[in-house]
Amino acid sequence: MNECRTLGLEYIDLYLIHYPVRLKGEIRMVFASDDVTTVDMPTVWEAMEKCQSLGLAKSVGVSNFTCKKLADLLNHARIPPAVNQVEVHPVWQQRKLRDFCSEKGIHVSAYSPLGAVGVLWGSNAVLECEEVKRIAESMGKSRAQVCLRWGVEQGVSVVVKSFNEERLKENMEIFDWRLKQEDQERLSSVPQKRLILAEAFISPTGFYKSQAEFWDGEV
Ligand SMILES: NC(=O)c1ccc[n+]([C@@H]2O[C@H](COP(=O)([O-])OP(=O)(O)OC[C@H]3O[C@@H](n4cnc5c(N)ncnc54)[C@H](OP(=O)(O)O)[C@@H]3O)[C@@H](O)[C@H]2O)c1
Description:
This protein is an alpha/beta fold. It has one domain: NADP-dependent oxidoreductase domain (TIM Barrel). The protein is 37% helix and 14% strand. The protein is built from 9 helices and 7 strands, in the order αβββαβαβαβααβααα. The protein has helices at 2-7, 41-53, 67-76, 95-104, 130-139, 143-153, 165-172, 181-188, 211-214; strands spanning 12-17, 22-23, 36-37, 57-63, 83-87, 107-111, 157-159. The strands form 2 sheets. It has a 5-stranded parallel beta sheet with strand order 1-4-5-6-7. Strands 2-3 form a two-stranded antiparallel sheet. The two termini are 35 Å apart. NADP nicotinamide-adenine-dinucleotide phosphate binds at residues 18, 63-64, 85, 111-119, 122, 142, 144, 159-164, 167, 170-171.
């Protein structure tokens, strides 16, 4: 597998399909949404399974898969995906998808658990959420810690990113306290909004014509 060779590793712990899309032509970072096309998932997943069987990946999984796409995959998978890495935070809690994954034994990994504040594809909607702000103030924790602790208490693994040493430490200090029951309940009633829409893959003239189509109605 090229990825192992490029990384100078004998194996990868977890190998994910990043998005349920394929590009026409060469793999490249810059592309037009009309270059996006359908994936032959049975063939791709068979190759992922082979990576695991050969020991090149300890586990294989997916990312940005909806309940429908997971159900389709499970229909033909010999090895079920270990993980589905998706957007999860208090403003987009993905309850339906998390329940589905839990029923099927697929671990949910939460990307952009702070809503990707300050990042090209993100927003400040999570760290500016009134409930998050109020809980952080009342508990003497940072807003980021409240979001990350919420994720951990939901049973997801939170994949947070920081280039700042202080914030890296802050983000680790979430394992020796808990959210109060009433605060968990308040967070569960936060209005929901998907923040990361994968717009680059959607075009009225492309394969995925709308958000609803790309996300199988989970928008
Ligand atoms: N599978 C996928 O399709 C997918 C999609 C999106 C993201 N991801 C991955 O998920 C990981 C995290 O996602 P993300 O970077 O989009 O979003 P994120 O972790 O929610 O947000 C990162 C942003 O939050 C800031 N930040 C981190 N800790 C903070 C704190 N304690 N207080 C205030 N701000 C804080 C960071 O700034 P500083 O660096 O300045 O601290 C950075 O601007 C990344 O590794 C990313 O590659 C995967």
